[in-house]
Amino acid sequence: MCLPAILFFLVMSYLPMPGLYLAFINYNYSAGIFGSQFVGFDNFKFLVTSGALWKLTTNTILYNLAFILFGNILQIGIAILLNELRKRWFKKVTQSLMFLPFFISFVLVGLIAYNILSYDFGLLNGILKSIGWDPVKTYSNPSIWPFIIVITYLWQSTGYGSIVYFAAIMGLDSEIVEAAEIDGANALQRIRFIVLPWLKPTFIILLLFSLGGILRGNFGLFYNLVGANNTALFDSTDIIETFVFRSLMNNFNFSLGSAVSLYQSVFGFFIVITANWLVKKASPDNTLF
Amino acid sequence: MARQRGTDFSSVAIRLFGYCFIGFFALCCLIPFLLVLGTSFTSEKSITLHGYNLWPREFSAFAYKIVFENPGVIVGSYGVTLGITIAGTILGLFIVAMTGYSLQRPDFPYRNRISFFIYFTTLFQGGVVPFYLIMTQWLHLKDNYLAVLLPGLMSPFLIIMMKSFVTSIPHAITESAKMDGAGDFRIFTRLILPMTTPALATIGLFIALGYWNEWYNAMLFLSPDLKYRPLQLFLYNVVTSADFIKNSSVASNVQPRDMPLESMKMATAVVATGPVILFYPMVQKYFIKGITVGAVKG
């Protein structure tokens, strides 16, 4: 009964793997993969010397670190606060609203961002103008994009993530909490000494998952926010996935794209192994494998 | 000696902060949607003068009129998305459930190896370029709706979620059914599937949501010549290409300069997203239940 799934992953995930051979050739469409010239590490050499690999790596990693750090702080914080609140209707309504952005496509996310940031019609500039400030040219100013992207990410993912943590808090034995209260623990102490330690295993597992993907970018988010060809912003917004996508769709440079993909897979693989190994040392019960 | 719970200073302060902070964040999540909705009902003139607004200064449903004037393309896109979503969700759900069930059966000899075989694909991938070549040159799925349907069928994450849910069903049930002479497939469809409804609902929602919002594979594999493309890609075209709007101005006999460019983008967004948002309150409780069930428990 596993056969359909095995076939699926064989075709969708394993069959493309030998295709990474593309990274070592100078792909020529008419000659085909095996007719193309073998160039060894030349593609990588080009990426390194042009500085592209370095920029893509730092961008991807820094964005992901920001997503992981701010995302988890916000998610855990909201989960804990939700747990402290008493009005059931308030919890229900706010949870629903916070979950809403998770339900929409990245295309709409991009449109919403444009709604707010557009130079001529955007809400942001509307507000700035109405209080007498100068409008800002968001789409040609690379330095503010890290903030925009991180905020959009938080906007979209916090509701979902906080429900995962909230669910974990629900599993906490209420007797422990009550016992602590009888012993005179106040809310801050309760959170600090009971709830936070209780969330640690969940946090570590989620952290491991996200560390494994630290070299994988959120393509839909970046592509729809920044746009396909807004070269002015690439310095601060280009990540590995958007680069690979461009090399595939615009330049047809299949080899360069594959070289970046291979680098990403190999590097990411070692990051997961290392992270898992570190966690195994620190707390052996929380490892992924 | 029960004490009145949480009346000390820090509890009250935290609650107060909680109401303000969560209320504020929830509003931030809602407002952009209102902005899109409001703009879609605003006249183009008012947008050019005052920009986008939450509340239409000058109400106009002209954009919707144009969007629906030539319903052909949008109805076709709806059809494509709906067809792919329904077919993909049913098929994917069935396969995910079957795989999740077999992988947790203690008497299944290769379960660990197959689990790793599936999990490994999250660690190491061939990347977009070889995937693209396999899909187009080897499976010949260029401009085929199957190219959108197939990749979304399942993910290791969903299989693991299903597996951890089925683990809560005692193996004794399978064993006793076996003794009564039921085959594995019969046990799965008659006994296991009905017992896993909450998990099926959640995983089904994940798959369906993925298909409804799908645009990436559609963009990779469906060329612009194709008459009907999935809704999100249709929306993407309306948002990014002025050509698209120019074409529809010809079709609806409106002068290009009179086309409600901005409000049409928003109206299309409302039309493409509406069903999911309306659907959402109904399915939310399953989602939350499913996440709670499938939540990673350390």
Describe this structure in words.
Chain A: One of its GO terms (cellular component) is plasma membrane. Chain A: One of its GO terms (biological process) is transmembrane transport. Chain A: It is found in: Cell membrane. The complex is a heterodimer of chains A (289) and B (298). Helix content of chain A is 68%, strand content 1%. With 289 residues, chain A is mainly alpha-helical. A two-stranded antiparallel ribbon of chain A has the order 1-2. In chain A, helix 9 packs across helix 13 and helix 12 packs antiparallel against helix 13 (254-282). The longest helix of chain A has 33 residues, at 52-84. The mean pLDDT of chain A is 84. Chain B is mostly helical. In chain B, helix 1 (9-40) packs antiparallel against helix 15 (261-294), helix 8 (156-166) packs antiparallel against helix 11 (197-212) and helix 11 runs antiparallel to helix 15 (261-294). The model of chain B has no long low-confidence stretch (mean pLDDT 82). The interface between A and B is large, with 105 and 103 residues.
Cα separation of the termini of chain A: 25 Å
Radius of gyration of chain B: 25 Å
Helix-and-strand structural type of chain B: mainly alpha
> Which chains make the largest contact?
A-B, 105 and 103 residues
Chain-averaged pLDDT of chain B = 82
* Oligomer status: heterodimer
Shape of chain B: globular
Give the class of chain A from helix and strand content and strand pairing: mainly alpha
The low-pLDDT segments of chain A are: none
Largest sheet of chain B: none
Helix content percent band of chain A:
55-70%
Low-confidence stretches of chain B: none
Give the CA-based shape of chain A: globular
